[in-house]
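Two proteins, back to back. First:
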Amino acid sequence: MSEQTERTFLLVFRLLMAWTFLYAASHQVFNPKFSAVGFLSNTKTFHSVYTLIARPTFDPVLTFLVSYGHLLIGLSLLFGFMVRVSGIAGTILLMVYWTAHMDWPYIENRNNLIVDYHIVYSVVLLYLVAKSAGQVWGLDAIAKDMPFFRKNSTLHALVS
């Protein structure tokens, strides 16, 4: 595969994953009825784990974190800025959803035995992180050369 073809695939995968998270955010950020606790209250396989955080008192905070987490991950992927952070955060979030949808050994329904789109999306996100996809037509390529990021090794590692 040529370098240009790989760069094109990285961009396409990054934009597809951005759309996935932005679309989810659009149903959460702009929907006053959305509740992360409501979603987590219906878990089956890991119900005892999720009931610890699926309490009405945590609902405003958890709903805010989930809704705006989707939005920030989607924007990060869209603009190619701090893709390492958003890719890892997105993978963690997807793994939470994977376990929350689980009715072992099925995920959501009997058509998905162990593996479903949450796993596939997670692998795509990890691929984007491993390949520094923000460097491909993204803001990470610009940020890594800025003095603000160059002087701080931790920040530089997040964009390079």
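And the second protein:
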Amino acid sequence: MVKLGFICEGETEKIIVESVIFRDFLTANNFEFIKAFDATGNGNLLPENISPIIYNLLDEGVEKIFVLTDLDEDACITKTKERINAPEGIVVIVSVKKIEAWFLADSNLLSSLFKGNFLFEDPESESDPRQILKDLLMQKTGRGIGDSKPRFATKMVNNGFSIINAAAHPNCNSAQYFIQKLTHLLK
């Protein structure tokens, strides 16, 4: 089994990688989840801040480290990766534009939440996918979710969110890239 560690931009990313569905996917594909760290913001994803986390993960036996972050307002994925400047061998996954776009890309999740077949056409084109989801939830279910990002992510995960489903969406390239990078480790 390949032992994995994750450095997450924030609580949402950490909630996603710690979810039962994702961890079951890892186990089924011969990966062992070791640990996920919350860097508490993309400003903390700088070499001097992630180096101690990397050493901690390596001390715990992690063989492969992934950094999960948002594109946010950066001009492109390359600029985000350059800012992070991760050491060689560390895989940086940049969700476009925000990680919550992956929730919009999981058609199974949305169909379940909205009690009917639902496909969001282009999730990664949205500048505020969390707000789009909040609005859709209110419109389709009459229930809100509040402003807490961790509570929102937990609701999505508890309702069946799957990165694998998000990666199956034709317009969610960052989730597809993440799954490709994981499965490439097995080759």
